[in-house]
Amino acid sequence: MKLKSIASTLLWAFCLFFTFTVTAQRSAKHPEEKLGWKLGAQAYTFRLFTFAEALEKIKSCDLRFVEAFPGQTIGAGSTEKFGYTLSAEGRQLVKKLLKDNGITLHAFGVVGGKDAEEWEKIFAFAKEMGIQVITCEPQESHLDIVSALCDKYNVKAALHNHPDPSHYWKPEVVLNALKGRSKNMGAAADVGHWMRSGLDPITCLKQLEGRVIHSHFKDLNEFGDKKAHDVHWGTGKLPIKEVIAELKRQKFKGMLSAEYEYNWENSVTDVKQSAANFRALLK
């Protein structure tokens, strides 16, 4: 009995040591997870490819989260497009592709609904697919519709800022839209688009304190230029160390969605290097 007890204790100790070792290695490789940050990619980065191909590319960049965008062809034998019009078979295929690649579908956007009925379909689709955040730019007259659906489906809606002159280009407009509405509504902070609009990302983040629930992450070669293009994170005009520090200070929890809109045909290396640069800064 004593021998069995010792053997059991040793086996338990080995399993515990192995678990701790694996966890430590994973934390060192993905330091963002300690902060509650989900580092992934907006599938629009790979818009020239199918969703199936995009997932493979995202996986190769050592990223485990995806933000899907509406209209991308599913692939893997399917010509259907990503969105609420997906058939039952299409939805199952998407779930299989995600599982096979070890990637979580966390967000979906940027979307808009033409009326209450379409917004309902968008939210119902998100709920079924396990999507946590819908990035969107709703009409002002639709904000109450979106707010009610956030609570009904327990799915978050993040207001996204395309550059000036889009409606939500500056934080003041986003904050005004969020007043008195669901706690499941917040901001999808696109730091690159703020730069294109000539807005300081740090100032914008501070203005939105407590309401940032998602981010499209970029670094650009120029500031205040609508034609500025993506560069490897940490090598452009984005004050990336300060952005990281501000997100930490705000105790941000959510997805940082790499949206690399340059070198469209061969951007895997760019995204992979950007993620590596980001993780090195966190360490």
UniProtKB/TrEMBL annotation:
Gene3D superfamilies xrefs: Divalent-metal-dependent TIM barrel enzymes
GO molecular function: isomerase activity
SUPFAM superfamilies: Xylose isomerase-like
Record keywords, A-Z: Isomerase, Signal
Signal peptide, first to last residue: 1-24
Every Xylose isomerase-like TIM barrel domain range: 56-279
Protein name per Swiss-Prot or TrEMBL: Sugar phosphate isomerase/epimerase
Species this protein is from: Sphingobacterium psychroaquaticum
